[in-house]
Amino acid sequence: MNVLIKRSITGLVFALIMILGLSWNMWSALFLLGIILTGSAIEWNQNFSGKNPIQAFLNSIYGVMVLIFLGALSFFTFFRSFLDSWILNAILISCLSFSISAGLILKNSKRHNPPVFNIYTCFLYVCLPVLTIGLFYIHDFGITKSWVLFVVVVNWANDTFAYLTGKYLGKNKLAYNISPGKTIEGAVGGILMAIISGILINENLIRLTPQLNMPQVCLLCLTITLFGILGDLFESYLKRRAGIKDSGSILPGHGGFLDRFDSFFFSVPAGIFVLWIIFNS
Fold it and tell me: Residues 135, 88: contact at Cβ < 8 Å?
């Protein structure tokens, strides 16, 4: 089967599952996030941590731990009251800074690092972003679900059109030593379509509350795309360092969880952070 057709079919099924899971209700959203987290943590252990059995166990239960934590927050209003305080802001800032710092730390590390180091970086790269998204959901599901979908769809638009533009028009390499297939033309095409998609969604397709003005939408979409590109390059660097092409094979034409959610782990928390600033300004 043609690679593009295989990617398209898998992408369509994947998109339907993501949209239904993230919008059905809070529990479907948290369950889906738990699956993403667990699958990504398992792949992290298989590819980047030397397959240490202790790391495998700890990385594999990240999803369960986060679901229990978020479930407790959902049931006990005392804990949920903290979501309106500085704690969520601190987690959002930490999520962005730690995800980036993980790449800087790994750049100067060996192929197989100490177990504590790999568990720590897995937590920063995989667990913190998903935890941040879950906390945002719990804050006010009726409002936040639409905004999470907004960020996810804009990120998809960036990924999809960056791939298509780069495939058919790409000539100048974006970061050849990290990801030879990515081009500057692809990145520009993805950014433009992401901004266009964000404007259309904000103005016509989804009734979002609160409504954003044009500069806010452009800022949000630009943040999502830039962090998405950063996340994509970061995972490409990890795979190149590990000597692998894909992190897994569960998604035909796309690879594994980490291949599909590489930009997601960076762009969605970054988008949520910008939204949090806008909502509270």
Answer: yes
Q: CA dist 98 to 38, 42, 184, 235, Å?
A: 19, 20, 26, 15
Question: Residue length, the chain?
Answer: 281
Nearest to 133 by CA among 66, 79, 75, 190: 66
Q: Which SS3 state, helix, strand or coil, does residue 76 take? A: coil
Establish whether the linkage from the previous residue to 252 is cis, with ω within 30° of 0: no
In sequence order, what are the residues at sequence separation of 6 or more whose Cβ sits closer than 8 angstroms to the Cβ of residue 77? none
Maximum pairwise Cα distance, the chain: 55
**DSSP class of 24:** S
Determine the average pLDDT of the residues in 207-219: 82
Tokens 């057709």, located at residue: 5
**pTM assigned to the model:** 0.83
Which tens digits make up the pLDDT trace of 93-144? 556 565 555 555 555 555 555 566 666 677 777 887 887 788 788 777 777 8
The C-alpha atoms of residue 196 and residue 217 are separated, in whole angstroms, by: 10
Q: Are strands 179-183 and 173-175 parallel, antiparallel or unpaired?
A: antiparallel
Distance CA(37)–CA(156), nearest Å, equals: 19
pLDDT tens column, 148-171: 889 999 999 999 899 889 888 888
What is 100-163 written as a DSSP string? Answer: HHHHHHHHTS-SS--HHHHHHHHIIIIIHHHHHHHHHHHH-HHHHHHHHHHHHHHHHHHHHHHH
Rounded CA-CA distance 226/274 in Å is: 13
**For residue 242, what is the enclosing H or E element?**
helix 214-242
Q: Residue 80 and residue 84: Cα distance in Å, rounded?
A: 8
**Rounded distance between C-alpha atoms, residue 231 and residue 226, angstroms:** 9
